[in-house]
Amino acid sequence: MLVLVVPLFAILAGAIWFAANAWLATSDTPMPAAGYVAMMLGVFFSVLVGAGLMALLFYSSRHGYDEAGHGLPVGRDEQDEQGCRPSSR
């Protein structure tokens, strides 16, 4: 697990360093009011889409849409080691 965590923290540190340098390099550039409005609308609709997708995820889970299908043909991923399909009774 350490092999996975260390590179992820290195990538996070690099992203934070890049963001801080970009923020400081452009700190004296004024942003027009239209830029703030566009940014707020972008954040609002991104959160709205994310919340809508999470709501659909919970809705489908509670109403049984995520259950396995019954009576459907068996796919290749359900074959055993010899390539035989399980018997359907």
Structural topology:
Elements: H1 2-25, H2 33-62
Distance between the termini: 43 Å
Strand-residue fraction?
under 5%
Tell me the Rg in angstroms: 24 Å
Structural class comes to mainly alpha
> Residue share in helices?
55-70%
Number of strands: 0
Please give the count of helices.
2
Order of helices and strands: HH
C-alpha geometry: flat
Describe the sheet with the most strands: none
Give unreliable regions as ranges: none
Mean pLDDT: 84
Description:
Helices cover 61% and strands 0% of the residues. It is flat, with a radius of gyration of 24 Å. With 89 residues, it is an all-alpha fold. The chain has a domain at 31-64. The model has no long low-confidence stretch (mean pLDDT 84). It has 2 helices and no strands.
Provide a quick synopsis of the model.
With 89 residues, this protein is mainly alpha-helical. Helices cover 61% and strands 0% of the residues. The chain has a domain at 31-64.
Can you tag this structure with a few keywords?
61% helix; mainly alpha; single chain
